[in-house]
Design a protein that fits this description.
The structure is a homodimer. With about 210 residues, the first copy, chain A, is an alpha/beta fold. Chain A has a single domain, classed as Rossmann fold (3-Layer(aba) Sandwich), CATH 3.40.50. Helices cover about 45% and strands about 20% of the residues of chain A. Chain A has 8 helices and 9 strands. The longest helix of chain A has 17 residues. The first copy, chain A, is globular. The two termini of chain A are about 25 Å apart. At the A-B interface, helix 6, strand 9, helix 7 and helix 8 of A face helix 6, strand 9, helix 7 and helix 8 of B.
Chain lengths: ~210, ~210
């Protein structure tokens, strides 16, 4: 009997390194599934349905919420975002872990869902706010106004750090990634995630009986 | 502010490798404290008070139990065994982890004590019962009757495997030890074991305020 996949939730303020860590994790173990969110916002140039997001119209999205097909969802600036449940359950049954790159609202909802006991949640903190802003500026993509907006959202996001099982302070990427892998390896070892142990111990008992 | 030390409980049937793993762990991190049990049994030749055991007379032992100085205790073949609480609490306050080489009875009591939330418990299983018996015989110390007795106790001990947080099947010592270290590293990372994070996040908020 195989291990049930777990739900790894990674949250952090924008710029703390969560997306890079997620990519490194998927390269480290290609069996890990990335949870692609559904959204009602329009695709941007270059975005592809089923790769960056599942793009759905509002009616379809609301129907999915109503029929319980979303593990979590939230409205942000007039658009809906959510994590479809079916692919997560399929991965779990298949013994594959799913990683969620979501914010504290999504994290709360999944932790409080029926799948909550399968959740491992990690909050990634920046070493300092100055460093966080520096990383955002280095991307060179955003205007001052957008950066100011992100920084204000970051403060709100950081205020939820204490709801997570683990906290990684991303001082340097290699040691943050090493912490992430250590956590995942350990959580996979937890007794309640190794249902095959039931059969293994039954085998030991049969060996005792046969002595 | 420093991390509070945790209580690492290792249980296993005799011969599964627990004692060797414990020794490897203490060599890996000399800051880890080994919990020395108190007992009412007489010292054997070569045993030293405060090294193998704290040797106490029955009256002293019972007094310690009555005054709550024992974290756990049990009677085995007419002798009392127990884990004194004071050195464990001192180590915890000092940010040092304590490792307990105890059986399922002791494990249950510590998990259900006031220190229960600081416990990480690991059960070490042998790869097979044949291998377990082989390892006992290889020691060459014990008569057939003693080995038969140990095997019967082993069966009882194994029946409690599902009460532990983690299970390690000791197929080879190196990978079992690697699992053990991975678990300890991860448990040290848990948010609720890193009280200094409160100060760290307060610092981040002050940085936001000062912007």
């Amino acid at each position: 009997m195989m291990r049930r996949g777990l739900l790894l939730i990674l949250s952090s303020p924008s710029g703390a390194g969560k997306t890079t860590l997620t990519r490194m994790l998927m390269a480290w173990d290609p069996a890990i599934r990335f949870s692609i969110s559904a959204t009602t916002r329009a695709p941007r140039p270059g975005e592809q349905d089923g790769r960056e997001y599942y793009f759905r119209d509002r009616q379809t999205f609301e129907h999915m919420v109503k029929t319980g097909e979303m593990l979590e969802h939230a409205e942000v600036f007039g658009n809906f975002y959510g994590s479809p449940k079916a692919p997560v359950e399929a991965a779990m049954a298949d013994g594959r872990d799913t990683v969620f790159d979501i914010d504290w609202q999504g994290g709360q909802q999944i932790r409080n869902s029926a799948l909550g006991r399968d959740v491992v949640s990690i909050f990634v903190l920046p070493p300092s706010i100055a460093e966080l802003e520096l990383r955002l500026r280095k991307r060179g993509q955003d205007s001052d106004a957008v950066i100011a907006d992100r920084m204000s959202k970051s403060r709100n996001e950081i205020s939820h750090w204490a709801e997570y099982d683990y906290v990684i302070v991303n001082r340097d990427l290699d040691s943050a990634f090493s912490d992430l892998v250590t956590i995942l390896n350990t959580e996979r070892l937890r007794r309640d995630r190794q249902p095959h142990l039931n059969d293994f111990v039954r085998g030991l008992n049969q060996e005792f009986e046969a002595r």
